[in-house]
Structure formats: C-alpha cells, structure tokens
Amino acid sequence: MTIQEAARRSGLSAHTLRYYERIGLIHSVGRDGSGHRDYAEEDLQWLEFLLKLRTTGMPIADMCRYAELRRMGDHTATERMHMLELHRERVRSRIAELTQDLKVLDYKIDNYRELM
C-alpha cells in the first residue's frame, strides 16, 4: 500500500512515517516498480505496536533500541522482554499517579456539588 494509505490506516502522517523510517523505528519499507514506498500489512501491525509504546510514554530512544533488537532476531527476545517489563512498570506507576490525581479531582468536584 502507498504511504498515504499507510498513513490513513495507521493514523500517522506520511511525514511521521518517513521520519520513523529515517531514525530506524521501521525498517526500510519495500518499494514498488516506480520506486514508491510499498507498505505491507506487517508494517501496519508494527506501527500499531509502536503507537502503543508511544502512547504509553516510552521514549523514542528506547523505541529505537527495541526496533534495533527486533531486527537482530530471536536471540534478542530476552532483552526485548526485559525492556517491555521495565516499561510496563513505568506505565503502572503512571497509572497509580493518575489514579491519585483523579481522586483529588473527584474530591474537589464533590465539594463544589455540595456548595450548589
């Protein structure tokens, strides 16, 4: 599929897709007969995972390291798993912080409701 189609389906801009390719987050995408990028379904699945990492706050440098390890093959699975476990703990900590923040907001809202 074209870069425009991949952008539409992934929710990323074509510029971001090119940037991700340039910094090594995605491998060099195949080219069609005209030399244009030709994304495959597997590319979209990888982009979907990258978006989850980004949404959960993984730094780009860590994402690049993960992508590099992935390209190196199965012998890096343990290191990749360890990276994801560490990131999962950071996400859990952030969820706990947000839960506490939400409790404060709920408390304040309840106070305003009592005044009204």
TrEMBL record:
<dbReference type="GO" id="GO:0003700">
    <property type="term" value="F:DNA-binding transcription factor activity"/>
</dbReference>
<dbReference type="Pfam" id="PF13411">
    <property type="entry name" value="MerR_1"/>
</dbReference>
<dbReference type="InterPro" id="IPR000551">
    <property type="entry name" value="MerR-type_HTH_dom"/>
</dbReference>
<feature type="coiled-coil region">
    <location>
        <begin position="81"/>
        <end position="115"/>
    </location>
</feature>
<dbReference type="GO" id="GO:0003677">
    <property type="term" value="F:DNA binding"/>
</dbReference>
<dbReference type="InterPro" id="IPR009061">
    <property type="entry name" value="DNA-bd_dom_put_sf"/>
</dbReference>
<keyword id="KW-0175">Coiled coil</keyword>
<feature type="domain" description="HTH merR-type">
    <location>
        <begin position="1"/>
        <end position="69"/>
    </location>
</feature>
<protein>
    <submittedName>
        <fullName>DNA-binding transcriptional regulator, MerR family</fullName>
    </submittedName>
</protein>
<keyword id="KW-0238">DNA-binding</keyword>
<dbReference type="InterPro" id="IPR047057">
    <property type="entry name" value="MerR_fam"/>
</dbReference>
